[in-house]
Amino acid sequence: MFRFLKSIGQEMKEVDWPNFRQLRHDSATVVSTSLFFVAFLALVDWLIQLFLKLFI
Hints:
With 56 residues, the protein is mainly α.
C-alpha cells in the first residue's frame, strides 16, 4: 500500500500543471460554452412549447 501511495506522489510531481493564464483561459472557455448551450437549449425549448401550443 505504501509503495502505491509513493508511486502516486512521484506521478503527481511529473504532471505539467497549467499556469494561471492557461487556467483562466480554459475556465472562460468552459463558462462561455456552457452559457451558449444554456441559451440555445432555452430557445429550442421555447420554440417547441410555442409549436405545441399552436396544435393543442
